[in-house]
Amino acid sequence: MLQTLNRVEPLQRVNDFVIKFANVNGSGSASANALFTKSVLRMGVPATPRNIFPSNIQGLPTWYEVRVSEAGHLAARGAGVDLMVAMNPQTWDKDVGSIVPGGYLFYDNTKPLPPSKFRDDINVIGVPLTDMTNKAYAEPRQRPLFKNIVYLGVLSALLEMDVAEIERLLGEQFKGREKLVTANVQALHMGRDYALKNLEWPIGLRLRRSNAVGDRIFVDGNAAAALGAVYGGATFCAWYPITPSSSLAEAFTRWCHRFRVDQESGKNKFAIVQAEDELASIGMVIGAGWNGARSFTATSGPGISLMQEFFGLAYFAEIPAVIFDVQRAGPSTGMPTRTQQCDVLSCAYASHGDTKHVLLFPEDPYECFEFSALSFDLADRLQTPIFMLLDLEIGMNERLCRPFNWDDSRQLDRGKVMTAEDLDSAKVFGRYLDVDGDGIPYRTYPGTHPSKGAFFTRGTSKDRMARYSEEGVDYEDNMERLLRKFETAKSLVPAPVLREAREPTRLGAIYFGSTSPAMLEADDRLAAQGVHIDLLRVRGFPFSAEVEQFIAEHDKVFVVEQNRDGQLRSLLVNELEVDPARLLKLVHFDGTPITAMFIADGMVERLHRLGLLPETAIGAA
User: Fold this and answer.
1) How do residues 515-574 score in pLDDT, each as one tens digit?
2) Per-residue burial over 500-517, b = 16 or more CB atoms within 10 Å of its CB, e = otherwise
3) Rounded Cα distance, 546 and 544, in Å
């Protein structure tokens, strides 16, 4: 039954609330929780889930938080939970403490708890889930699994969910296994029927069918990037398992088995190697790239640290390669299952000596797909490693995004590759000769011609003809040419996206990647308070002229990012030589996703302290 101690009114919200599931890792709850989110989406209501899980073995706490927002807000909301599904005694106190006043606690009341374990400003819903499943299922292993479906059935009644959508999803999930479909539907209705007969329903939080999802798809960034790699022509992947990037390589394997197997012979048209470590994987990728294969590795911060010397080799020998860095909280082991944007500098200047690498910053799964395919063109065009920086928030969590688009007439851009005929007709071939003035030399695949072209490469200094040289003039000539190539890259990386404020302003904000949904929501909050800020989302490095112009046109520019040291800000100062005082650091680095509330409050507080808060601001200080 529903316990309300009448200190506060129960929350009343439709299609706008946060529900959080507290479970034990390895209990089989992930499937049921995902069914909840997909059911909400099938009702046409946008929902954004986030897995919060431990980095070690089965048995530790795990959470699954879903923000339901018909308005379309995709960022984490923060500021507590409206409905807590508390299924883990280990985290009870923390879970109950996170509920907002007037919110709801749904728990298994098979074993009575003392009044001290509850709060008097929330609404408590108890259901004897364990007792119900113990009576219904004789097999002990089935009980905890079906318990998850039973509580989903209870929720379907409390929130007025369309139970037919859940049934359809169960049918899709267990297609071809009718006994499982029937058993799960029965468990679903066991919970639903109990709620309809014994609980006050619906509660103040409700779901109502809408059409706010539209034609958007629901996918995680790692799967999207893997599919983009297939469309981008990747045929070789070498990787070593590491959270949170492993699912990218695993998804690439699935996509390849679906799209890259010759229908006539049954032979694979791809090669995937789970290497013995990160060093081996990047070495294989560079070797494959030298031989003309579009190749990549997927890793995270610790892998980036280990691969540094190989990055320098690929940069200096000018070998195409793509590195997907799904960032997590560092340094060292850090927090493997928490999100950050903390590899910006380590990737931009990877390896010893003077290096500058091309970086791509996707904001969502759609751009993960787009930028992934683009990265292989850029790697071939520029003959250099391309780093695509995702993070755990984008990579491992499913999110609504635009449907992927692909032009079947699009051709792979292999860059300046000479054929045997080109070599025969050319007066001279210089592997590191800048013929066109863009810093990009011409190359050949090994074995293109029996006696001409490049067969070997080196990481040592050389002259324009690829002959070993320790002459300073040759070294400087080569290093300056690499800078010209980096200048060329400015016109090839994705351009930044400008969002102008509703009113003229001298305030700006620069952001990137997974910060995007929180930044856009924060912008709406600030504008409602009379604080107007122009926004620029950076999507690639090297920075284009638009970035420098944006900074020049504003007196103060916030740089919003998810790391401690303000790495993007440091990169802007170093590369554009702007006055550091113009760039205001706003950083979030506790491992949780950044929120609109954090951004808006941080900006208002800083502007108030600087005496720059507009007089039109309403209650913002």
Assistant:
1) 999 999 999 999 999 999 999 999 999 999 999 999 999 999 999 999 999 999 999 999
2) ebeeeeebbbbbbbbbbb
3) 5
Q: Is the dihedral of CA 405, 409, 412, 413 positive or negative?
A: negative
pLDDT in tens, 25-72: 878 899 999 999 999 999 999 999 999 988 876 668 999 999 999 999
Q: Where are the alpha helices (DSSP H) in 338-434?
A: 344-348, 365-382, 392-396, 420-425
Helices (H), 121-220: 129-136, 142-158, 163-173, 178-198
What burial class does residue 400 get, using C-beta atoms within 10 Å of its C-beta: 0-12 exposed, 13-18 middle, 19+ buried?
A: buried
Question: Residue 316 above 70 pLDDT?
Answer: yes
- The tokens of 610 are what? 């600087």
The reply to whether the predicted model has a pTM over 0.70 is yes
- Spatial strand order of the sheet with 81-86 comes to 2-4, 123-127, 99-108, 81-86, 16-24, 61-69, 47-52
Instruction: Compute CA distances 107 → 128, 147, 162, whole Å.
Output: 8, 12, 22
Cα 556 to Cα 249: distance, rounded to the nearest angstrom: 41
Token representation of residue 42: 């099938």
Are the C-beta atoms of 160 and 207 separated by less than 8 Å?
yes
Q: Which residues touch 615 (CB under 8 Å, ≥6 apart)? A: none
Banded pLDDT at 6 (limits 50, 70, 90): very low
pLDDT in tens, 253-281: 999 999 999 999 999 999 999 999 999 99
**Amino acid letter for position 137:** Y
Supply angle C-alpha 212, 248, 407, rounded to 5. Answer: 60
